[in-house]
Amino acid sequence: MNHPRLRDNRRLNAFEPYPLNQLPDDLIVRIGGYFTYLLYTGRKDFSGTDWGNAFSDAIGGIHLGSPVGIADVVLGKMAWSMKTVKHTNPFKAKSVRLISGRCSPDYSYGIANPHEDIPKTGQAVLGIWNERINIAQDNYNPVRTSVLIRSNDLLSFTLFEEDNHRFRTSDFIWEVNSNGNLIGIETKTGNVKFTWQPHGSQFTIHATVPDDAVKFTIRKPSVLTKEDILKNLQFDESWVRIIK
Prior knowledge:
The protein has one domain. It is α+β, with helices and mostly antiparallel strands. It is built from 5 helices and 11 strands. The protein has a 6-stranded mixed sheet with strand order 1-2-3-5-6-11, covered by helices on one side. A 5-stranded antiparallel sheet has the order 4-10-9-8-7, covered by helices on one side. The protein starts with about 25 loop residues before the first helix and ends in a 12-residue tail after the last helix. It is about 25% helix and about 25% strand.
């Protein structure tokens, strides 16, 4: 349904090309075509940047290509945060860990010793995440996370989306695991939802793969060689100028 019009509504109303996690078949085909192109040019793996480029090319959006912030790909007033992870069998993946940026409680809140007060540090980590969501939603709405699970041979994929939203700090308790990292446990389910690493301040969100995630494969193309490229360009010695 469309967002209702209200006299005091400051919400950004964006055109949504498709409902959440209901990616059209033609969009999947265009994404598969981009991956086939990458394999054809000899690519051995796909990075987060490649995933952002593939999706923006398929959706007709803009890939901002910035390592800071939530919005990676934008289309009008809508934005996606692009995440990709590797799995031996993407079709059987039940959960994935999404690296979601650096959160430094020391820099943001002056918490020099993160292990001194675990609940306080955990709340600070979520506070930093929530503020990043606030900034993103000041400029874009809706904001989604688009997750691509890729196989080792880059021929099988699972793709799903979820809303990118704030987390209520009261919904989680924080503990320290055997590696000295902080883990955020959802009180309702008892499941680990977050991991935060004191060394590097890396924040990871544990996401569940939905049953209706899109699964697709692509056919492996022949690889374009250096010789093929030079021949197509009609390269000869005149292309090289030696300065003496």
